[in-house]
Amino acid sequence: MYEFVFFVEVLTINKLSSKGSVLHFRVYWRHIIVLNSYAAGIQFLEKHSNIYSANRPDLAIIDMMGWGFNATLMRYGSRWRSHRRMYQQIFKPETVSHYDTIQTRKVVDFLCGLLKTPEDFVNHYRTLPGAVIMSAVYGHDGAQKNDCFVELAEAAIERLGYVLLPGTALVNMLPILRHIPTWFPGAGFKRFALESRNLVLQMRNIPLASVEMKMVSGTSYAGVSFTSPYLICISFQPLSTGLLAGADTVRFERICSVKTVTDFWQNTSVLGTFFSAMAMFPDVQAKAQKEIDLIIGSERLVNFEDRSSLPYIEALRREILRWRPVLPLGVMRAAGSDDVYNGHYIPKGATIIYNTWAMAHDPIKYSDPDSFNPARFFNKDGNLNEDEVSFAFGFGRRMCLGRHFAIATAWLAMATVLQNLNIRKKRDSSGHEIPISGRYGGEMLRHVFPFECSIEPRSTEARQIILDTAQHM
Q: pLDDT per residue over 317-328, tens digit each?
């Protein structure tokens, strides 16, 4: 499956970021353009969005794995525009607050899990993003950890990360190879794709079938999830203009699992970085807790209405996103037509990659970029600056439409954990701290390697606040 993995090694992040703001590579007949600076990203993907922003490369392996339905990976056209309209309606900044109750309930479940089995914190933070998404999308109220729907999505999405980098599947270079039989020598990529396709079909169909069954049995209603209203609309004619795109999308594409791809891995990785960073940098944790204690206190849990009152928590969230980007190399684009950049010819179909890691660690934009320092997001007057690290979610028309939802979930999880729990490095039997390597794995979608840490309530009152809140939700 990794016939051209040497190419991935050549395109190491550190080498790329030091060679220039725009680089060109050629692998056989494929042209690959790498954007290493935020300015280059803006120039290509926003100022020239009509050429670079909308389309994706035609990757045969994506269709073979069953991901062709996904708006994040779909090539430009009427289907993609229909999908995008639906998600714009659902996840506009002004409508994200509709999901506050769902997010709060799942975050409280997450806190209860940390109280009950703190040693299993990795499973808890890996479950939270999927649990929030499954509840918002399908009205599924899953387990605090090891939920069947979440594990199914995780298994399907994890395989996707192996094939998104250029050069990782020969079939993308030679699409005719998709027709060779699975027993043929060198056809491991096809067996991998067929196994992945089965997982993707289950991820798409099982949760949606669950919504339909609940609606038929009367145990679900339109307000439970954003899938329900579209399924209801399918049964009534004529469809309202506002729901037409969404109803058609659900009816013909069954793509509500689109959101799991972006938000699931984004927040799973972000929360892993959060726990490791808080254990590694106790001074930052103490400063964040001091802000919460001073402004909110300990008589209730932090909620979304407190967000504007906690600037250091917001700065901390931004720094986590910058310090260890989830997608060090953003999802590929494709040039929609021939173009010329600074005298250099860029042919139609060229693959465009934006180097998120280089942008996030640009020493000109971020002083001492390898250090973990939330204070970098404050102006001299003490107010937050305008840098929201938006490039971590992409550029132009392909920017993640669910980013406001994902940010809200991550913010609430971080704020409530900091308010009520202490995260420290674990100690061995001799009392010595066990170091955290800080190493990351994954192919395109990065995540921190499992590590050990100690998680304890800050006080008996903090523990009781969590339990009381859970009891009354």
A: 999 999 999 888
